[in-house]
Write a structure and sequence with these properties.
Mean pLDDT: 85
Helix content: 55-70%
Shape: elongated
Distance between the termini: 5 Å
Number of helices: 10
Radius of gyration: 39 Å
Number of strands: 12
Largest sheet: 8 strands, antiparallel
Length: 486
Amino acid sequence: MNVQKICTAALLLCLFLTPQTASGQSDSTGETTGGATPVEQLLAGYIAGDRAVQTLLLQYQQAVLSNQATENSAGFNVTLSTGTITIDADQIKAEPSVSISFPRFSGASVSATVPVLLAEPQSAAGFAGTSVSAQVELTRGTARQQELTLIQAARSVTTAGRAVQKQLLSTEYDFYTELKSLYSGYASLLTAQNDLYEKKIDLETLDVQGYSEQSATYRTTLLEMMTAQRDADEKSRSLMRQISLFEDHCGLAPDTLQPETLPGTETVLSGSGILEQYFTGTPETYTELEQAEWDLYIAQLRQQAETSLTVSAGAGYTYKSTSSAGRDVVDAGVDITALGGTLSAGISVPVTGDQKIPSARLSLSWSPGDMKSKQIQAQQTDLDLQIAALKILDARESYDTNQDDIQQTWSDLLWTRSINAEQYQLYKTLAQDMENWYAAGLITESENRKAQINEQNAFIQCRISDIDLILHDIQTKMLFITEETD
């Protein structure tokens, strides 16, 4: 999975913007916002500054290294050793050895030890006790365990990469949630400012009508105006504080954004195809179902690896064995482990010298506790299989339910977007007419101002409905595996 390429592309968006993106964008209202900072640039800065993404990218690299270490340990391993070197006045002794193991191939291993003796005054070299041996497991239990370890290590890389993917989507979701909050705050501010304007008009009307400043009516209206002023000021301060935090999250300089220059999202909508078709994922890429099927697969592999019988066989050759009166000896043996017990048997056959009488060895050990532990482990694995099978059924049901919800929500959001766009055009036309009527002296300033505020609020609702569609698309993608494969 090429996670690094995806993440790098996301982080470099802020450096490579197309001229079309930088020149302006039009939203569902048909308006073009040429002076606004492109939303793609803001999003790229937002992602670049997200430490959670940075942390997960580092963890992904750790998973890659850990997987490489696991593959290395399971491959062709060679160990060289000098053994203990003893130096006396008249001789030098050493026991160098080499060991080669193949963990992937039934735990096969080959080893050789070559004792070396250099003695004076003859300066002759002795190699008595040189031995070569090989061992392999016949039941493949170790090989299955090693295969399971390799599969889980590779899965950890996949899981870490998907965590990056999910965090990128989560960060994008947070970005648009913040942007939506800014638009909502701007709408509240416009409403509060209009309310303040109305209260000021009411107070001015009382002045014209000659009300005393000490009268109950005047004082009540004054208090209402002061309350409206405080409410407008609070909403203004709150909105500017939110914008300041948003600028910081996006890596922008202070005062780059203003309520009037908040970015639209039409380029995102048109580029993603959200308006034509909602995101659809297959059952195979549904995260919950894929994970449930993976858990079942691993439980099955673990059950196969946890064999109740293990058989290993080995053979060796020793040159001038010190334990067999200097004769060359061939050895063979077998180890059987089952039901908590271990049976070891072997035979040694001299192949040189006058007396070629073989010798045998036999040992038996048994651990009731180990047998009980293996039985419990087998029962746990069986329960894991049953749980994984039930989770698959739940995941399939969840997929079907979510598919219906995704389609219905997308349809509802499109309908809302269409209605908001129609209302905006009506409010826009009315605001233009009211502006002309006010210029002609046919309506009051208050009526004209209210029409302009309604137009602005309708425009903001269009922007919010656009963002809601994007948020729905992100939420849907978070339910599926949306990775690239090499």
